[in-house]
Amino acid sequence: MNHKIYLIAAADQKNGIGFKGKIPWDLKGDMKFFKKKTIKTDNANKLNMVVMGSTTWESLPEEHRPLSGRKNVVLAFDKNYKAEGATVAHSIEKALEEADERVETIFIVGGAKVYEQFAKRRDLTGIYLTRIQKEFKCDAFFPKIPPSFKPNLIKETEENGLRYQFLLYKKGK
Ligand SMILES: NC(=O)c1ccc[n+]([C@@H]2O[C@H](COP(=O)([O-])OP(=O)(O)OC[C@H]3O[C@@H](n4cnc5c(N)ncnc54)[C@H](OP(=O)(O)O)[C@@H]3O)[C@@H](O)[C@H]2O)c1
Questions:
Q1: Is the CB of 140 within 6 Å of ligand 1?
Q2: Fold classification of 4-171 (topology level)
Q3: 113-134 confidence digits (pLDDT tens)
Q4: What is the pTM (predicted TM-score) of this model?
Q5: Alpha helices of the chain — where are they, by DSSP H?
Q6: Which residues is 51 bridged to in the sheet?
Q7: What contacts 136, CB < 8 A, 6 or more positions away?
Q8: For the chain, domain boundaries
Q9: What is the pLDDT of residues 57-75, one digit of tens each?
């Protein structure tokens, strides 16, 4: 199948995305953008698929997992790994095979190890990146964006004194 694949992430000025298994900021506007972007489909009979690593899955509060209104796929090497309400895949290829005809778009929702593998793929369609204009203490980082992807500003906003931009990186201009 030929689904569009997007990375979607929020990163600080130095590409930091997480610290000790958590996201270091709390931006309601970004959470809202993420929810809308990953849930909304053009075709009302379809749903989007979110793919994440086991660490990111475990970082979600139990009441928020699986992410509602989306097909959840969790990557884990451990063959006995269980993620209630989600499908567990043991490789990237197996995760992508979960995107059947009912799935409209695939969103890769983290974390660092998973973004890293998808950023290199030739079939990557684009990257939704929320860029926060501050530096936080982080131990997980967004990978280098391939130079063929150019940023387009969707909108800029401010929340709790923090400025941030919603960017969509696409191939070419
Ligand atoms: N700012 C953001 O937008 C954002 C978004 C998401 C997450 N985060 C942050 O990112 C951090 C987590 O990132 P992370 O790199 O530590 O972990 P991660 O990418 O969420 O998960 C890594 C785990 O996924 C599994 N995995 C990865 N690649 C695989 C493959 N090809 N096949 C099978 N399993 C695979 C492995 O699980 P097993 O070890 O269980 O086998 C691996 O240990 C947290 O701090 C989180 O809050 C930030």
A1: yes
A2: Dihydrofolate Reductase, subunit A (3.40.430)
A3: 999 999 999 999 999 999 999 9
A4: 0.97
A5: 28-39, 54-59, 92-97, 112-119
A6: 73, 108
A7: 12, 16, 19, 24, 25
A8: 4-171
A9: 999 999 999 999 999 999 9
Element (H, E) at 163: strand 162-171
Closest ligand 1 atom to residue 90 Cα is 33
CB 9 within 8 A of CB 37: no
Output DSSP code: residue 133. Answer: S
Q: Which residues touch 141 (CB under 8 Å, ≥6 apart)? A: 11, 14, 15, 16, 17, 112
Which pLDDT band holds residue 156 (cuts at 50, 70, 90)?
Answer: very high
Give the mutation target among 8, 77, 115 for probing the ligand 1 site: most ligand atoms within 8 A of CB.
77
- Sequence-distant (≥ 6) Cβ neighbours of residue 117 within 8 angstroms: 92
| CB contact at 8 A, 138 and 160 | no
Query: What span, in angstroms and rounded, lies between the C-alpha atoms of 49 and 32?
Result: 17
In contact, 169 and 149? CB cutoff 8 Å: yes
Amino acid type, 125: T
| Ligand 1 pocket test, candidate residues 26, 34, 74, 75, most atoms within 8 A of CB | 75
**Helix residue spans in 17-156 (DSSP H):** 28-39, 54-59, 92-97, 112-119
